[in-house]
Amino acid sequence: MHVALLLNRVSRTDNADVLDVLRQCSAIEDSLRNLGHTTERIACSMNLQEARDRLVSSSANAVFNLVESLGGTDRLMPLAAVLLESLDIPFTGASSLAMQLTTQKVAAKRRLSQLQLPTPAWFTPESATWQGLRASIVRPDRAIIKAIAEHASLGMTDDSVIALEDLTEDDINELIQQLNQRLGTPHFAEEYVEGREFNLSVLASDDGPEVLPPAEIEFLNYPDSKPRIVGAAAKWGEDSDEYHNTPRRFDFPHAEQPLLDELKALARRCWEEFGLRGYARVDFRVDADGQPWILELNANPCLSPDAGFAAAVAQAGLTFDTVIERILTDAFR
After folding, report:
1. Of 89, 68, 91, 105, nearest in space to 278 by CA
2. Would you tell me which of 2, 94, 130, 171 could form a disulfide with 299, CB atoms 3.0–4.6 Å apart?
3. Domain assignment of residue 232, yes or no
4. For the chain, how big is the Rg over CA atoms in Å?
5. Could you tell me if 282 and 267 are in contact, meaning their C-beta atoms sit under 8 angstroms apart?
6. 216, 230 Cβ separation under 8 angstroms
């Protein structure tokens, strides 16, 4: 089979989070060739006609969709899936509809709330009030300000977590607008859940979605005053304390099995309700009462060899080649 790898066009001067797509592409190319397929790379930019022409001339039997952003924003990422759907070429990962819904975090939270799946409350300038509040609270004590449609923890630092006690909704709105202007992308405020952080990777199989072993992100040597978040430094700052003090673990005492089972059930439900395909990741916080809260759904998580998805794959006893084969097979379902 001839497989085209469609990726967003990058420059060697781009940040590490943007360049990471090249590492993913190399690893997937090697795996596809191990599986007996031929490959070619096709870079995608805002010139979709150029990408379309390359795809048509490639005569590819399938496309491995690795487009993570277009025009410098993740908000346009679903356009690659729209292009592939218009060409009727089998492609890996989520449909354009599922990609659009999961990329837009507020839209995803609205959908989760409609499905009565637990997600922290949120505030946007458009709503001007808190949405999805638990019955037991009127307003959160703390919030974290996030980009609505950008991933890789864009701009997220300790200062992103704010106490709300002395802030009005107008104050929150002003903070959001300042970030919108500084980073050039819309933000929202989300209830900050103090507690543990888990990532659950999900992989397609012949029998439906397989939830891989849950991973917990540990926060080592964090003083009490420091927010326990996986910010930009923890993800990309290789010289930072956060990067080196946020390892993931997969070993849990038997007493925590009910919690792990609940997280797996929620991840599987997210896959089914959002129409995900191929592979995905669901991020959770678990509060002091043991209640899981769904933070985000990632319809195309990083497949780099050192990323969390690959770590969960190894923990499950699967090879990377097996994973790539299963993702590719799911493109034809």
Report:
1. 91
2. 94
3. no
4. 20
5. yes
6. no
Question: 290 lies in a domain?
Answer: yes
The tens digit of pLDDT for each residue in 47-89 reads 999 999 999 999 999 999 999 989 888 999 999 999 999 999 9
Question: Can you state the angle between helices 48-58 and 78-87, rounded to 10 degrees?
Answer: 40
66 Cα distance to chain centroid: 13
313 in the same domain as 208: yes
Percent of residues, the chain, with pLDDT higher than 90:
82
Domain encompassing residue 146 = 115-191
Q: What is the phi/psi pair of residue 135, to 5°?
A: -60, -25
Burial of 239 by CB count in 10 Å (0-12 exposed, 13-18 middle, 19+ buried)?
exposed
Q: Are residues 22 and 43 in the same domain?
A: yes
Token pair for 17 = 């989070």
**DSSP code at position 120:** -
Q: For 310-318, what is the mean pLDDT?
A: 97
Neighbouring-strand partners of residue 70: 73
Query: What confidence tens digit (pLDDT) does each residue in 256-270 have?
Result: 999 999 999 999 999
Q: Are residues 322 and 281 in the same domain?
A: yes
pLDDT of residue 186: 94
Question: Rounded to an integer, what is the distance from CA 315 to the centroid of its chain?
Answer: 20
**pLDDT tens digits along 194-221:** 999 999 999 999 999 999 999 999 999 9
Are 153 and 202 members of one domain?
Answer: no
The answer to whether the CB of 98 falls within 8 A of the CB of 299 is yes
The whole-angstrom separation of Cα 69 and Cα 72 is: 6
Q: What angle do CA 231, 236, 240 make, to 5 degrees?
A: 80
Tell me, yes or no, whether 6 and 82 share the same domain: yes
Give the tokens for residue 99.
Answer: 């990609």
| 197 within 8 A of 189, measured Cβ to Cβ | no
* Residue at token pair 């599987």: 268
Domains of the chain: total: 3
* 75 and 158 inside one domain: no
Tokens 């038997």 correspond to what residue? Answer: 254
